[in-house]
Amino acid sequence: MISYARQGEQNDETSQAAVDDHIAPAPRVSVQAFCETVETAAAVQAACEDRRLAKAHLKIQMGGMAAAIEAYRTAPTPNVILLETESETGILSGLDQLAAVCDAGTRVVVIGRINDVTLYRELVRRGVSDYVISPVGPLDIVRSVCNLFTTPEAKAVGRIIAVVGAKGGVGASTIAHNVAWAIARDLALDAVVADLDLAFGTAGLDYNQDPPQGIADAVFSPDRVDTAFLDRLLSKCTDHLNLLAAPATLDRVYDFGNDAFDAIFDTLRTTMPCIVLDVPHQWSGWTRRALVGADDILIVAAPDLANLRNTKNMFDTLKAARPNDRAPIYCLNQVGIPKRPEIKAGEFAKAIENDPIVSIPFEPQIFGSAANNGQMIAEISANHRTAEMFLQIAQRLTGRGDSKKSGNSFLAPLLGKLRRK
Is this model's pTM higher than 0.85 or not? Predict the structure, then answer.
């Protein structure tokens, strides 16, 4: 008999709300779809290219219920069967026939046009994992398959945030570390910073940490990577913030394959609600994979022509590679350097076709002091305007609008005036 898995919910959300959903990636599973319409087959094919199904092996066939029953008379069933049915009659009898040839543990998702609660209850009673009303889009397929492997009681964990500079020297690492600090301190969300610049990473310096082990121990020993192993490599910065530090040494060459960090990211997802990747400014197979595979992306740019070109290229490339995700966001940094000609934020926004989330001013005194002391901006001046900008970015990237610093009290306007003075 087909095993019972998580019951699906009817999908009547708007497309934007769907894009904003956090959907955990599916594990390495086999999925076979039996479609009756070319529209559904196209949606499933598009879902195959989504990053969250990157590990799933998905095969598409036409013929619907009859084709599925015939196929599994002589072949083992996959982990998941996607089954489209256009007929209003024979769904239940067809599922009974399919159950007779299904292996134990196979999960079935039915795609149909009948919006009827009685039918839905009968499907659940027969062990169907999810029932999706057609017409369906790629994200409907992604959500349905991924949710099969997410336990209902599990809290949302494993959101990966990638921060990358549009050009070298724009301060992307500094912003990544300060945003992670805001996520941990102000949003009280457990987070880890993974410094991916193994040769020249600065996370250890910025957090005033010098751990004997770090991310290099994991990336060069992929067979040892598990939760316990990574826990030993983490350096604790605060109650809610941990660091997976880079060695920042040149005693070896750091050449990696495309999937070198996959095991690390997958393991971190299972234990940490938020993972902030400090991605070095380079374009290689593994950096592209890290960016495309992230849940959210922040591009850091300075207001000049080279940064504008690079931001535009990265924005367009990543948006095309992640059609079912939120578009990357970007911020401008080092704005207002004396005597330096700059491209205004409005011109930047016109070229990118998106506004920067914030424009961080050039303030060498406080940023220099923080860097030299191994502190965050909020540690030096909690009420500094850039600290508020980092919190704004943190809220946007995590989807959490509330923080421990509540501004809803009746004293908030007065305190704001005093801070400005």
Answer: no
